[in-house]
Amino acid sequence: MLPPGAFAVVLLVNGLQVLLPAPAFVMDGRVWAPARPVLERLGFEVRWDAETGLLSALSPAGTRSWPVVAADLPPAVPPDGPFVGWRHVSTVYLPLASLRSDQLAVSYDPAARVAEVRLNGVVATDVSLAALLADPVAWVGRRVRLCGEYLGWSPYRHSYATVDRNGLPAGCFVLRNDTGAIFCDPGGVSSPVRASLATTTGEMPPLTPYAPLGRRIAAVGALRMRADGRPIFAVSALETLTGVQGLTCLLHLDRRVYAPGERATGVLVIVNPGAGPVEVPLQPGGPTLTVASPDQTATVIGVSSPDMTVSEGRLALAAGEQLLIPFAWSIPTGAVTGVYWVSAHVGDGLAAYPAPVEVAAPLGSPDA
User: How distant, in Å, are the alpha carbons of 290, 300, 301 from that of 260?
Assistant: First the structure.
């Protein structure tokens, strides 16, 4: 319940809406927010000393502390401080202005009733998913940036970090590139309404269960370890990739399982979701597909489409344009059974991450 005369506001942390155990609110012109979830989303380790009534936030840059008073109403805080926290029942609140520093920018839009706190000038380390998954414990808590494609809200069974054995918070989505895949948690709470929280700026549609797959994005956040020992990426901000890096380049196979001797078909989807045209320098001979078999042999297939706009060796894509390039692969009758990985190389900086397809013996055959 809000204090008398207070009203609730939306709180954004690094551009993402935050669902809180109790609402952030404005009273007497000052924004108050539950301390722990906000500080943890900003990368601080939070400590509460009940005996002294002191709340501390620890980071590599140092420690900040607030004395906290327990009362029926938030304490009056002068505009220039000193800042004091407020404990109501089991929740400790801080005046949002007390977070303002060289590293943190704080703002409030009274017309929209939206408050925001954002990390300012803190650089995230670019890391590959392969390095992160090879030794996840070494990356726990470090602010990193992962680039990959949005694969939706369902488990991806080809990565140990995305096999949902023990349940995940609602709204987690898969981020994948050519080196691995991981679940990303955009909110830190487990409510289904989180499906609308994985957003960046107005340039990019929300990442919901119905958003198109394959959109290339960058996720900034910190790695956490689940109780079952597997990693999950706690997202603090999403970034829009631009130019060739921001193009969707996704392989879609018509079926997941084929038998030897069948013809596997599908489509290579290339989409420019950006606001301006993009040109991709094509490789000699144009786009190709590579099919890697379980025994490490590879088959290369050339693909093309009359809808491709090519000039001087460059593939041109207008803003919002979607290009569909059909492909087919004749599976040899004596093909080794198992998981085959199909990838596509379009041009300089643009390739489709490998898509799995299973070649299995037909039901009823001696090898089935």
Answer: 18, 18, 18
